[in-house]
Design a protein that fits this description.
The structure is a single chain. The protein is α+β, with helices and mostly antiparallel strands. The protein has one domain. The protein is 31% helix and 29% strand. The longest helix is centred in the middle third of the chain and has 15 residues. The chain is flat and about 35 Å long.
Length: 68
């Protein structure tokens, strides 16, 4: 039996905001605004499966895209 708290149900809007495509668009916007390269990373968190950062990722993080 699975724990209902371990897999959150995402609304359609939350699903869209948590998508890789959205994270990539944010990375492009941040790159244009700052001039600093951006990474799109996989987090493993179902509420935020992808994130954008300008810092070099940790060894345990997976790089999905680099906006240079």
């Amino acid at each position: 039996m699975s724990d209902a708290r371990s897999t959150p149900i995402l609304s359609a809007r939350r699903y869209q905001l948590a998508s890789f495509e959205h994270a990539y668009r944010v990375a492009i916007q941040r790159r244009r605004a700052s001039g600093i390269q951006q990474f799109v990373l996989r987090t493993g968190d179902p509420m935020q499966p992808f994130r954008t950062t300008s810092r070099a990722p940790a060894q345990s993080e997976s790089i999905l895209a680099l906006v240079a």
